[in-house]
Amino acid sequence: MHSHPSSPHGSQEPLFGLDDLPRDPAAEPGPPGGAFRDSPQARRLLAVREIHAEPAAAASPRGRQILARFPDARLIEVESHWRIPELHGNEGNAERWMRVKRETLVLGVKKTLTTRPNGRSADWIAPGPSNGCALSCVYCYVPRRKGFANPITVFTNIDRIVAHLGRHVAAQGPKREPNQCDPEAWVYDIGENGDCSVDALICDNTADLVRAFRDWPTAKASFATKFVNPDLLELDPRGRTRIRFSLMPADDSRLLDLRTSPVDDRIAAAADFLDAGYEVHFNLSPVVVRPGWEDAWAELLRHLDDVLPQRVKRQARAEVVMLTHNADLHEVNLRWHPRGEDVLWQPATQETKRSQNGALNLRYRTDIKRRALADLRELVARHTPWLGIRYAF
Ligand code: SF4
């Protein structure tokens, strides 16, 4: 017999049958100002038909909000959000994976809350409010642990995540030494395993974190995104959340960033997000070395310089991350998107490294990477001299 996961109240059994849950859409207050997440565009990206839920997650206030939001979705009880083989495996074709990402949600309770030191992009990696993504970037590392079709798992115990972070922030005290993450604030990455802008189409987890950070003057939230969600403009972050729009040349993005907002839309949104109280940075990532890549990046940088207003340029910084690929992901991608692999899989310029969890990762050879990073720094210096590079990796 299997036991059910512990609920936040310590019970080993579901509190009540899933069918008894209220499914009234009016139960959930939407964000003020008219919600993008209710628009046809948002409903196309995420047309939830099936929700796999741990009983404790479904019974929680956040779980109820989500169930109320998708009243027509079929509810399936699962013992653990982490093991749902029929969802997470690599079986099936791309059409099926995309459908799983679009039509399926998982609700779980995050059991272990740990904040890990990072030091590159952020000072700390926070326990994220989700794992998985409805977008489908072909190089994405997030599904590697669960299989290719990794739909969004929403962690419903967001109150515990916020309380954990509050304690962590308090324990650090003020930041005494400026570093590459930020001159003054401790930076917490809140979106390591998903896209917080997409999560905000589902529930208020992202909003809760943004609101929490605005009351912590020594800390700052940070997340990378490839999706423009105008609902985030309503959250009043008061400068305590850094949104990092990921950018790559449009041709690469069309080939590799499936289901994301077009790169031009991400750039065009920068000023709106700044005016709404966010700090706006850019992730130049992943940099994919292919014939003509320098010209394509030069064009992208010139475009940034042309269209971004001064006030965005004044505060913008960038991270540069070269592509890391993975042998298993390559095999999977070959079955459904071989054109992407033509540029991602370049064994002649890449070297393999076995990671701690046994995965075989590919990175550009050291000499090639060093040269590419130097070239990119030069392009940035020439075309967007206002864009300081916080780190390049
Ligand atoms: S947006 Fe991020 S988390 Fe989502 S598929 Fe792309 S790389 Fe992965």
TrEMBL record:
Annotated coiled-coil positions are: none
The source's domain of life comes to Bacteria
InterPro entries for this protein: rSAM, SPL, Uncharacterised_Spl-rel
Pfam families membership: SPL
- Cite a GO CC annotation: endospore-forming forespore
Which parts pass through the membrane?
Answer: none
* Annotated region (Disordered), positions in chain: 1-39
Q: Where is the composition biased (Polar residues)?
A: 1-10
Which UniProt keyword terms apply here?
A: Lyase
Q: Molecular function (GO) terms listed?
A: 4 iron, 4 sulfur cluster binding; DNA photolyase activity; S-adenosyl-L-methionine binding
Name this polypeptide is given: Spore photoproduct lyase family protein
- Give the organism, scientific name: Streptomyces calvus
